[in-house]
Design a protein that fits this description.
Helix content: 25-40%
Strand content: 5-15%
Number of strands: 8
Shape: globular
Strand order of the largest sheet: 2-1-3-8-7-4-5-6
Number of domains: 1
CATH class: Alpha Beta
Number of helices: 10
CATH architecture: 3-Layer(aba) Sandwich
Distance between the termini: 14 Å
Radius of gyration: 18 Å
Length: about 325
């Protein structure tokens, strides 16, 4: 092993969706890049098993699971998902969910673990949306809670798009505070809008940093929503992220932090409108990892979106997330 943690990966993560803005080949390219550069070797990777239907039903309705299993989605449901349905696609999503379950288990054992896939944060309990069929992160959380491995989890969603499925699955326990105003980095003095935490055994605290003027049109309230203006830069983004993490962790102590490390806040992303650089995105990852590591909170990482004009940039951003964690957990070893 070259890394101080494990990477969950399967060649069958590939999504059979044909010509599509979602780069289905990125999972293989991340795996191959790590091997080619010597940052990882074969022993760093673990193959997942698919989630069971019972696992998926911890989050998704039985009717929706049945329609997926038997190819009975309506035309509207397939349109919402924005992916061409096939049994092979169902198998790929079940496998990604199994990967996130395994990543959560290994994170609790090792301090951090990556699912080189997953992060399908737009899926709702009864339908898919935005390239997401089922919500692997939510399934992993509910599975860990069912097994008694955790009681409380926090999601930190740094995809450019709001985590609407996450917010719908794990609604705040108390009424949402007023929406965040938009400030520049130099003006961040206001309190981050949050929902007060209640110490329920099954509670999940959700944080979403996203471009306000972007998909989805309707954004259900998270515990903390940071609605970023178009063109947000590295320094502005990092200041907001630091504020959101500090505010969330003042109120809520999770047993597991689920980090959705989207690559699409990148300034060259086709589906984003923020202005982060590749270096700024690596600093984002470092900030999340340093905060969690300092508090001994296990971290499960998933990759979510990334649609750079040059797919190699997306791969670099995702690989850098692993390298950012490597630097912190190697020091900690």
């Amino acid at each position: 092993m070259r890394l101080p943690f494990r990477l969950i990966y399967s060649k069958d993560y590939y999504l059979p969706i044909g010509a599509h803005v979602f780069p289905a080949e990125k999972y293989r390219m991340i795996h191959d890049r790590l091997l080619e550069t010597g940052e990882a070797d074969d022993t760093d990777f673990i193959q997942p098993a698919p989630a069971s239907d019972d696992d998926v039903r911890l989050v998704h309705s039985g009717g929706y699971v049945e329609r997926l299993a038997h190819g009975r989605l309506s035309a509207h449901e397939e349109m919402q998902m924005e992916l061409p349905y096939s049994p092979e696609l169902v198998r790929a999503f079940w496998l990604a969910a199994g990967g996130s379950i395994l990543a959560a288990e290994r994170a609790l054992a090792d301090g951090i673990c990556f699912n080189i896939g997953g992060g399908f944060h737009h899926a709702y309990p009864d339908h898919g949306e935005g390239f997401c069929m089922i919500h692997d992160v939510a399934i992993a959380i509910r599975k860990m809670q069912k097994l008694g491995r955790i009681r409380r989890a926090m999601t930190v969603d740094c995809d450019v798009h709001h985590g609407n499925g996450t917010a719908a699955i794990f609604p705040p326990k108390t009424p949402k505070a007023k929406p965040l105003p938009s400030f520049s980095a130099a003006q961040i003095k206001a309190e981050v809008g949050t929902a007060a935490s209640i110490a329920d055994e099954d509670e999940v605290f959700t944080i979403s940093l996203h471009q306000q003027n972007n998909y989805p049109a309707y954004k259900p309230p998270s515990s903390i929503d940071v609605n970023l203006p178009d063109g947000t830069t590295d320094s502005e983004y990092l200041a907001w992220l630091d504020q959101a993490l500090s505010s969330g962790l003042r109120q809520f102590t999770p047993d597991l932090l689920c980090y959705v490390a989207g690559a699409d806040p990148y300034r060259e992303d086709q589906l984003g409108g923020l202005a982060l650089t590749i270096e700024g995105l690596k600093q984002r990852d470092e900030l999340v990892f340093k905060v969690a590591n300092a508090r001994s909170i296990p971290v499960m990482v998933t990759y979510a979106g990334g649609y750079a004009r040059n797919v190699e940039d997306t791969v670099t951003i995702h690989v850098n997330t692993i390298l950012a964690a490597q630097a912190i957990w190697r020091k900690d070893a």
